[in-house]
Amino acid sequence: MENDGSGSSWNEQYASEDSKQSGKRTGHRHTPQQIQGLEAFFMECPHPDEAQRQQLCEELKLGPDQVKFWFQNKRTQCKAQEERAGNLSLRAENEILKNENEAMFGALSSVLCPDCGGPPFGREEHTLNFQKLLLENVRLKEQRDKIAHLLSNMSKRPTVGDPFASVPTQHISSYGINPSNMFDPSSSFGPPTSQPIQPQPISQMDVSLLSETAASAVEELKRLFFSEEQFWVKSSIDGTDVIDSENYEKFSNAVKKFRSTSAYVESSKDVTVVPIEATTLIEMFLDAEKWKELFPTMVNKAKKLHVLGSELPIRENCNILRVMWEQLHILSPLVPPREFMIVRCCQEISKGLWIIADVSHNVDFDFDFVNASCYKRPSGCLIQSMPNAQSKVMWIEHVEVAQKLDTHKIYRELLSGGSGYGAKRWIATLERMCERMALTSNLTLPASDWSEVIRTGEERRRVLKLGERMIMNFNEMLTMSGKVDFPQQSKCGVRVSMRMNLEAGQPPGLIVSAASSLRIPLPPVQVFDILRKLDTRQQWDVLAYGTVVTEIARIATGSSETNCLSILRVHPTQEENNNGKMIAQESDKDDMLMLQDCYMDALGGMLVYAPMDMATMDTTLSGADVKISDIPILPSGFIISSDGRRSTVEDGGTLLTLAFQILVSGRTSRSREVNERSVDTVSALISSTVQRIKGLLNCPDQF
């Protein structure tokens, strides 16, 4: 059949009743306008559902079979092209490896002992020397970790030039990859999430290149912000604003970073007004640690590598430059993190109006990225100072993504729209965190709060800070470094990882983390409300099983009543009252407490909690010469998100992720039996919790 390059070339349909009866079909070419419309939609959504195909039929005046077959053929054609390109690349690589292998064998055959000029080592000698080197490597690693741990206790804020600033103090291992040595913390299993990032010297040529890159990004963002009608169109998937690629390519000098046919571009725009001074907000954007604190559910790691400005020639387009590295992660271990090496430029373009531009750069700092699958085109925000200590923020996100970032199928639809890493999520997080910061700065006890244990504004502030750290720790755990899948009867796998913790702020010893994600056929708001109810908590929470849970403190963290921090008391004994309800009995034992932080915004919400005893809570409230960052806490919880099929959290379905962390042994215990038993226990625990939650939500087994 002849091919016109559009993916389906000839789309077949029945021409008449006669042709139907005779079994013959007549081929019809699509018009250029129809092909253009189909191609544009395919770039955004290669797998349209029935409603989207019907919409295309009406817009392009095509039959359902024509649209269906076009997309099938187009996907087949793209896959074949990618496979051909991959095969050619693999053949060339294989040829290179064969040549290198032959050269290495030739070199090894002529190697002589450097001491005596004798023949090379035999296999046994090589093995013995290799084992000696491994043992020496283990010893050196242990020494390095001891030094790093001591330094972290002496100084929580290392200087940029500190050679130990990026030495990790956690040993990551995973269950099921190498049983013979998975209990040795010096072993490394699976690919790490990222390499340690150390500042490197920067040449004057690199400074000039970064300056030009930032200047170009600022100019491009200005055009995107101020030429709205020319460059922006409505997405055919979810109705959000996206960049018109055809008009964009006419004025931009950007070259596609990824040549694969499966690579795609994400673009989005959103705007809001937040209760924070513009200058304060800009300062947080330019400080890597404050940037991470401002977006704790999105920015997993961030590091400022270089500060440029005074060394730069004075130019109109650059006022302040930062070279930064960041790792972003959202929602679930099933969503891969994204890493960017960016240059961030801040410029005041008029009185009270600033532009902050982020763009990936091509300066080689000799960093080896595990996740070099994302490239940030000029993105950023426009910040306008407004009366009453408020700021108007307009956000643009424009990213090129390689298909090798393997997102699980239940999250693909969500990420393909503007609800993934797009501007809408940045804006929703910014709104929530600015509200929280405004309430945290209140040194009095607001009328909206109530508590049996918090008596002063300072105690309230310390509890809120502990809640913020709990959410940050929970989100850092969600990347699940060294992850392994465990199949479950609920049709969703349990992802388990283990780590030997040496850091302050979490219990020392072996910690097992487990997470599972599933689809729920209920709106996110309804799922959130059910999980937050205290009278049904004992039905799913193993910490509250067979007990009574009461709330003894509540602190508002936002304007919505769904956004609050609570202190819960779990009563281990109970009795039934005259109405048949279970109530707490008086007990001489100390009740267990739980710190819980929860919120809902335009895209979903979280419910994070951690058990603690009364002594730890007293230490938190009193201060007692203990930093909030040193109080040991091990959070678990839920991430609740819309499934991407609707525009709000009041309708549509829910993607629910639950994640647990459990301390299974002290820092000195590394036995194989403990690890295997711990993984089995945690895997069974999270699977049973999934089933209990399904029962509580009346969710069918097929979900």
From TrEMBL:
Taxonomy, superkingdom: Eukaryota
Annotated SMART domains: HOX, START
Polar residues composition-biased segments: 1-16
Basic residues compositional bias, start-end: 22-31
DNA-binding annotation, residue ranges on this chain: 23-82
Annotated spans, Disordered: 1-31
Keywords: Coiled coil, DNA-binding, Homeobox, Nucleus, Transcription, Transcription regulation
Pfam families, per database record: Homeodomain (PF00046), PDF2_C (PF25797), START (PF01852)
Ranges for domain Homeobox: 21-81
Compartment(s) where it occurs, according to its Swiss-Prot or TrEMBL record: Nucleus
Domain START: 203-439
Main location: nucleus
InterPro entries: HD, HD-Zip_IV, HD-Zip_IV_C, Homeodomain-like_sf, START-like_dom_sf, START_lipid-bd_dom
Family: Belongs to the HD-ZIP homeobox family. Class IV subfamily.
Protein name per the record: Homeobox-leucine zipper protein HDG8-like
Lineage: Eukaryota, Viridiplantae, Streptophyta, Embryophyta, Tracheophyta
Gene: LOC104744414
